[in-house]
Design a protein that fits this description.
Length: about 375
Amino acid sequence: MTRSISILGATGSVGGSTLDLIRRNPDGWRVVALTANCNAAELARLAREFGAEVAVVADESCLADLRAALEGSDIVAAAGRAALCEAAARPADLTVAAIVGCAGLAPTMAAIEQGGTIALANKEALVSAGEVMTAAVTRHGATLLPVDSEHNAIFQCLEGERIEDVRWITLTASGGPLREAKDLSAVTPEQAIAHPNWDMGAKISVDSATMFNKGLELIEAHHLFPVGLDRIRIVVHPQSVIHSMVEYRDGSTLAQLGPSDMRVPIASCLAWPERIDTPCKPLDLAAIGELTFFAPDEKRFPATRLAREAAQAGGAAPAVLNAANEVAVAAFLNRQIPFSRIPLLVEDVLMHGNLPDAPRSLDEVLMVDESSRRRATEMLELA
Ligand code: NDP
């Protein structure tokens, strides 16, 4: 049976892993829409290879390049935020939401509003929109399948179980490349993005290094799995073999293990509720030898504490935290601020000034995002 698929963020790391799986089963999939920000050449190459109906760049200044690269094909080229949402709203059996950052929120919501199945990698969208997104999922009868390896692991461990029987959800964290770094203020972007286990885009790699990735995942888990925030805990597990665990009331703990390869959780979403083959290396536990676990060090890496506090505060706080983190990470990658300033800036934006009112619609979430970015940028300029 051939199913249709759209990939938002097709030129990125998750987008590429998804297309790699589709390439291995070309008869199984018909590609509807592929999107990028501005990487027109790569987007056009992928759109031609997979015979996409439409290719969209978010950045309108890149449309001319996209059109030129698609010349002679039947693929529709489009650009801009509205075109991105229109592409996301095209009927598809599965939409992979793999844009990085809150920029992915509006197109993801457009896909949700079609009542389809969304494989969600874009955690910033769920963190920012929280209840607005989960309410839309319910209202439109959509299905969210978590792509994030931790949430996909939890999703698998919860299959066939009752949520009220859950005692703990344990999110595992690799601890990132800087777990043992001596001087966090001297860390360069190159060091921060050199993740020991996972090959990912630059933003999530920096988030892994600061532990904001785990903080965002805590909020993501809180929305995806309604067990209560105080029942979700984090443990550092440097080998990234156990992707997360669920402990039940009888003392049983179910865990999902696998190689550090995003094609495993992506394949689980592509095939759900069935399974498909992947080319991933089988897990060789004897070669790995040892699995270790540590409590997170929130003194050196305050991101998980800040995220938990934002989730407890609720309302606009998670969207503010996410926006401030996006600004801080971009400034760090541009060498404007030291690595150690990232959590400080996020905390400053969260703590100083009044929090906006709790957003109740997509537009209100986008307004909170916009105003928080402005505040974070002003604070950067003041420093
Ligand atoms: P990448 O940076 O590799 O790719 C991001 C994608 O989003 C690219 O296609 C990029 O287009 C597009 N994009 C960037 N900015 C915009 C914008 N303003 N508007 C529209 N599209 C945009 O990111 P990843 O694949 O690493 O991550 C994607 C999401 O998945 C993130 O939310 C991340 O947290 C999550 N995730 C990633 C994992 C991973 O292993 N990489 C694991 C789990 C979750 P262009 O190429 O033109 O810039």
